[in-house]
Amino acid sequence: MIRIAQLSCGAEYSGIQREIERAAETVGATLVYPEVSLEDILNVESTFGVSVSSGDLNMAMARAVRIVQNPDLADAVIVMTCFRCAEAAIIRSEIRKYIHENSKIPVLSYSFTERTTAETLLTRMEALVTTVKYRGLLAREKQTGLTAGIDSGSTTTKAVVMRDNQVIGTGWNPTTEVLQSAEDALQAALKMSGVAREELQAIGVTGYGRFLVGKHINAKLIQEEITVNSK
Question: Do residues 168 and 192 make contact, with C-beta atoms less than 8 angstroms apart?
């Protein structure tokens, strides 16, 4: 199971901790909280160059340092603070930057409210899990082989066929019925490319209807928008 380290301030106080846990469970991940010592907490000011009054923020920074020093403690990190706190917003950004610059561990940040639900967190949790699972694939600079991609959006569905980093076919149509729209877009891209569907080595799916379409076509990769846009 993929381990996501939760570095946060105010999640319990805001009453959303259970929502965070539900989001992690939904994507097949478990939350972890790296142990730190009092000395670790007292030393974070020298590491980050900033002094904060919040004990939770100091704890979050200390855990970030611990993870960078011991990357085996977590597969990914999510940094979360309450949107009401300006100090927390600064520290959230600094923690994300610190982990990003000093490790290869995937990290995302989020500003929550008292109304944040598991559903609103799902895309971010999914992004972390996807990045960990397909790290090697996502690290590729160039596409190789013969593959297709489908973007099943809420208003339009797009498809592309590529061979060795070159686009050889595209398809586009309005999204009406999700599965049929995906099939139509893919068929249009295949027709333009002159490639038979059986020749494709893999298909990837993203967008609003990614789970439904991905299951229907047996996609090799189902990817949410955050990691897609990061490429």
Answer: yes
